[in-house]
Amino acid sequence: MTSYVENEAAEQFDFDMKEILDKIMEKVLDTEKCPYEAQVNLLVTDNEGIREYNRQYRDIDSATDVLSFPMIAFETESDFSAVEDQEADYFDPESGELILGDIIISADKVKEQAAKFGHSEKREFAFLTAHSLLHLCGYDHMTDEEAKIMEGKQEEVLAELGILRDML
């Protein structure tokens, strides 16, 4: 498992972003029964940076908390068998790892939402990371049912890692 973290935001946190990403990534991939070693890229930016990415890639001209760019077009959530027929498209030729995709998180939104919801910045960052990793595994929340499934999986992962809402 490999993760890359780039921080272009002026905001800093009192926790190690890569350590959180790695813990959550390992737990999500284990929970989703990913049969491969995988890699993910995370970019941490500010509200203006994520607004620009949101405008460029989604035609939405506003800041958001997290953006996910899955590499795999899953037909069924976490059905990793689809990648086997197109190995050259989905696996890093150097490491042999499955390239899940990219995540962009707004550090400004992490701080704003942690304050709004009354929990730690670490918990908010972890929540957004888990949310995005589930998107990279094919989950979405376009319907109420999909949202319930995704929310349950996010909470389960965070609870198993001991990253709870009361982490102030």
Please characterize this protein's 3D structure.
Helices cover 45% and strands 17% of the residues. With 168 residues, the protein is α/β, with parallel strands linked by helices. The protein has a 4-stranded mixed β-sheet. Helix 5 packs across helix 6. The chain is globular and about 45 Å long. The model has no long low-confidence stretch (mean pLDDT 94).
What percent strand?
15-25%
Strand order of the largest sheet: 1-2-4-3
Regions with pLDDT < 50 over 5+ consecutive residues? none
Question: Cα distance, first to last residue?
Answer: 30 Å
Count the DSSP helices.
6
Spatial extent as radius of gyration: 15 Å
Describe how the helices and strands are arranged:
Elements: E1 2-7, H1 17-31, E2 38-45, H2 47-58, E3 66-70, H3 87-90, E4 98-106, H4 107-117, H5 121-136, H6 144-160
Parallel strand pairs: 1-2, 2-4
Antiparallel strand pairs: 3-4
Describe the structure using short key phrases.
6 helices; 168 residues; globular; four-stranded mixed β-sheet; single chain; 45% helix; alpha/beta
In short:
With 168 residues, this protein is α/β, with parallel strands linked by helices. β1, α1 and β2 (38-45) form a beta-alpha-beta unit.
